[in-house]
Design a protein that fits this description.
heterodimer, A: mainly alpha, 62% helix, B: Jelly Rolls, 18-stranded mixed sheet, 6 helices, 25% helix, extended
């Protein structure tokens, strides 16, 4: 009886600690990302899954999930790897599709990241200086996703 | 002094025997002279404090020193009380850090000075610091540098590394409230109002939905934020601070370059003494104000 109680208590502790670890996992990911000078495509995909409150299940699976949600074009990033350098044009395209920015119609028609980038600049999600070919740092990616969260109705 | 024999002695001492002997003689003579003078009272010994102070006085002085030290320590300890920060609410995922590791943040917890707070995606934290509240918005990292109170003064300092916070500062009638929010490029001093501060790679931004506050950038730019005014400080420390008012009322004699310069040097508080509204109130008696709005040409 005592052994059963101890085992049950230990199981409860394990579950709680596991839940706590999951809770800290996303925060740890964000903190580590903030310390990096260069964000990768995998970071952007994972971060977007967190923003959409979807569980991150790996780069390929997340990529497919974002394509199903319409945030990524079906034929986009076919040959890309999770460690590829993230550029502003790519993340701008994801943001423009997600938020359905008005100016993104050109992006929907042409598929050019340039128009998605301009739409994000107009929406004050991206800074005006720069181009769609600029690399994205960890802090910049966090700031972009913060503004995406504010714009997508994440207001208390 | 007996002269030493230097026969067959070629040491330096003997080669300079004359000089050495003469110097030694002088020194000895000097010593003898001083001794004679001292004995006869011509030269008096410099009083030694240890010798002159009796035993009872030393004990008295040491007691006074101890009492003074205790009083000073007591005053120092009692002068500044460091208040704990209470977590009013937590929505989503948030964590705090006092040492090396991050720990989950929960409602009802109390935090100390020096604590870092971090929020995740779609997560908010509300903190109470004395009578003020700070709302930490999503994807924010901040640090509580100070939250202390003295006799008639409350001092709170927050450092914002990234993200956004909203501070609702309540001033006491008899207590001076100092509430500062610092970013890597600027510091704002809230006067008792609602302030929103944010910081990111592109710089810092301050806004005053209610009340007003001062802002000082790292390059020395100063300004007052109130009403619909907002201040943006670019990420570079050398960048200027930009003011974004809806309407500006300026002296018509100002040149274009002077007007542009005002953007960098700040504006007078229109509600303050000597401000433009006071001037207008004193001069308006059927006066007319002409507003010239110049819209940019299309394509520019």
């Amino acid at each position: 009886m005592i052994q059963k109680s101890i085992t049950a208590f230990a199981l409860v502790l394990l579950i709680i600690s596991g839940a706590g670890a999951q809770n800290m996992g996303s925060l740890t990911f964000i903190e580590n990302l903030g310390n990096r000078e260069q964000a990768t495509l995998g970071d952007a995909v994972t971060f977007y899954m967190l923003t959409l409150n979807k569980p991150a299940r790996g780069f390929k699976a997340d990529l497919s999930a974002l394509k199903r949600l319409g945030i990524l074009d079906a034929g986009a990033l076919l040959d890309s790897g999770k460690k590829d350098v993230l550029r502003k044009g790519v993340i701008a395209g994801m943001i423009a599709r997600h938020l359905k920015l008005r100016d993104s119609i050109w992006y929907l028609v042409t598929g050019f990241d340039r128009y998605a980038y301009r739409a994000c600049v107009a929406a004050k999600i991206l800074p005006p200086k720069g181009s769609e070919w600029d690399k994205v740092s960890g802090e910049e990616l966090i700031e972009m996703m913060r503004r995406v969260g504010e714009r997508s109705g994440g207001v208390q | 002094m007996q002269k030493k024999s230097c026969n067959n002695d070629k040491s330096i001492r003997c080669t300079n025997r004359g000089i050495l002997i003469s110097l030694k003689n002088r020194r000895e003579k000097l010593v003898q002279l001083v001794s004679v003078l001292y004995i006869n009272g011509v030269i008096k010994k410099k009083p030694n404090q240890r010798d002159s102070v009796p035993q009872g006085a030393m004990t008295m002085r040491s007691r006074k020193t101890m009492i003074l030290a205790v009083v000073v320590l007591f005053l120092f300890a009692a002068s500044t009380a460091f208040a704990k920060i209470t977590v009013i609410s937590v929505k989503g995922k948030a964590a705090f850090k006092t040492g090396r590791t991050w720990q989950p943040l929960r409602r009802g917890m109390t935090l100390n000075q020096g604590t870092k707070v971090s929020t995740g995606v779609h997560s908010w934290v509300k903190l109470r610091m004395f009578r003020s509240t700070v709302t930490v918005k999503p994807l924010t990292m901040m640090k509580i540098y100070e939250n202390s109170s003295r006799k008639n003064r409350i001092r709170t300092r927050i450092g914002l590394r990234r993200g956004s916070v909203r501070a609702h500062v309540t001033r006491g009638r008899r207590v001076k409230t100092v509430f500062k929010i610092s970013t890597p490029v600027a510091t704002s001093s809230v006067r008792g109002t609602i302030e929103e501060a944010s910081h990111g790679p592109s710089g810092s931004s301050f806004a005053a939905p209610q009340g007003s506050f001062d802002v000082v950038s790292r390059n020395g730019q100063r300004g007052v934020v109130f009403g619909r005014l907002g201040f943006n400080q670019s990420g570079s420390r050398r960048g200027p601070m930009f003011n974004h008012p809806l309407v500006l009322v300026n002296d018509p004699n100002l040149t274009g370059s002077e007007l542009r310069g005002l953007f960098f040097t700040g504006f007078d508080n229109p509600f303050g003494t000597g401000g433009i509204l006071e001037i207008l109130n004193g001069t308006i008696d059927g006066a007319q104000i002409l507003v010239d709005i110049q819209w940019p040409e299309p394509g520019k």
